[in-house]
Amino acid sequence: MNRYLLRRLAQSAIAVLGTVTLVFFIQRLAGDPTLLMLPEGATREDIETLRRQLGFDRPVIEQYLDYVWQLLRLDLGQSLVQRLAVGDIIASRLPYTLYLAAAALVVALGIGLPVGVLMAVKRDTRLERLLVAFVLIGQSMPTFWSGILLILFFAVTLGVMPASGVDGFHSVILPAIALGALTMATFARVTRTAVLEELSRDYVPAAQAKGLRFRAVVFSHILRNAATPIITVSALEIANLLAGAIIVETVFAWPGLGQLAVQSIAARDFPIVQGIVLLGSFVAISLNLLADILYSVVDPRIRLEGRA
User: Fold this and answer.
1) 91: which residues sit within 8 A by CB, 6+ positions away?
2) Contact, 274 vs 67, CB < 8 A?
3) 113 Cβ contact partners less than 8 Å away, ≥ 6 residues apart
4) Category of 198 on φ-ψ map: left (φ > 0), alpha (ψ -120 to 50) or beta
5) pLDDT reported for residue 89
6) Are the C-beta atoms of residues 250 and 259 closer than 8 Å to each other?
7) What is the pLDDT of residues 16-39, one digit of tens each?
8) First-to-last CA distance in the chain?
9) Is 165 helix (H, G, I), strand (E, B) or coil?
10) H/E element holding 21?
11) Cα 176 to Cα 147: distance, rounded to the nearest angstrom
12) Angle ∠(46,47,48) on CA atoms, nearest 5
């Protein structure tokens, strides 16, 4: 177990470093940010002075090594535009994104898991066909489009929900639905497949023969045995929720990391973009490691030492 965790931690560190390296060099291909930070009438001397102050006059490799050394000291650098510590800027926006992602996860799990179970239990019925259509709509509709439709219907037409911003609990309902729709569809499909597989096992008729009601068999045995693929999807989908928040936060003017990332990319604020990517990759890798550990909790037959 300890050897497995140490190996996974080493792999995670390499993955995070690789992600940061790619983002660092790809951003440099976008152009010189100093051109956006100076007025149109700036002279070449003004541009060179600012580039020298920001350190962009040095070789790219030297800039990269300096950035990695900063990360090792837990220093994310300073924003080129706001001239504030990147860590402080991200910390001020992170609670909004976590709040939105948590609300979207509640929507996805609260709807996706029951729908998936019903689709499996009520297989080949009219109810299943209706639920399949519902899941397909949630899976096929782009997040930005569903967000716009929600705003048009609930905010503009009915006037019962705020269209944007953060103003109480009602503000998170529409963006949470838009962000959680795709994840809901994924949970429903995976749950249906896992439950159908368990329904074909021999222990299901055996448990019913012992006098257990079908509902008790589903909740006591089938769902527990079907939890492993759901845990896998949960780890991936939580990371996808944080990534999808970029679009949703832009549509609903939600002041989280997604909106900050879009603004920073437009302004070529390299340190903030690198900090957000670093945080996102760390969360995604940590969730996958946590999912692997939970496997052995849900199913003791799984030995982590044997996993690749």
Assistant:
1) none
2) yes
3) 187, 188, 191, 230
4) alpha
5) 92
6) yes
7) 888 888 888 887 776 667 766 767
8) 12
9) coil
10) helix 2-28
11) 9
12) 95
For 77-107, b/e burial (b = at least 16 CB within 10 A) is: bbbbbeeebbbebbeebeebbebbbebbbeb
Q: Is 168 helix (H, G, I), strand (E, B) or coil?
A: coil
Q: What b-and-e string marks burial along 215-246, b requiring 16 or more CB atoms within 10 Å of the CB?
A: eebbeebbbebbbeebbbbbbebbbbbbebbb
Given a contact cutoff of 8 angstroms between Cβ atoms, the answer to whether 149 and 159 are in contact is no
Using DSSP's 3-state secondary structure scheme, residue 300 falls into coil
Distance set, CA 299 to CA 146, 179, 222, 307 (Å): 37, 31, 13, 14
Neighbour tally for 202: CB within 10 Å: 7
Q: What are phi and psi of 269, to 5 degrees?
A: -85, 80
Closest C-alpha to 18, from 244, 281, 246, 243: 281
Instruction: Tokens 């670093």: give the residue.
Output: 278
Q: Are 276 and 90 in contact (CB under 8 A)?
A: yes
Output the pLDDT for position 307. 47
Only one residue has tokens 């569809």, namely 185
- Taking the CA atoms of residue 256, residue 258, residue 259 and residue 260 in that order, the dihedral angle to the nearest 10 degrees is 80
* Residue with tokens 């928040």, as numbered in its chain: 245
Quote the CA–CA distance of 299 and 288 in Å, as a whole number. 17
CA 49 to the chain's CA centroid = 40
| Dist CA 278 CA 265 (whole Å) | 15
Which residue's structure tokens are 């000291």? 73
> CA Rg, the chain, in Å?
24
Q: Which residues pair with 85 in a beta bridge?
A: 78
Q: Which residues of the chain have pLDDT under 50?
A: 306-308
**Under a CB-based contact definition with an 8 Å cutoff, are residues 186 and 111 in contact?**
no
Q: What are the boundaries of each domain within the chain?
A: 92-267
Could you say which architecture CATH assigns to the domain 92-267?
Orthogonal Bundle (1.10)
Q: Report the amino acid identity of residue 130.
A: L
Element (H, E) at 159: none
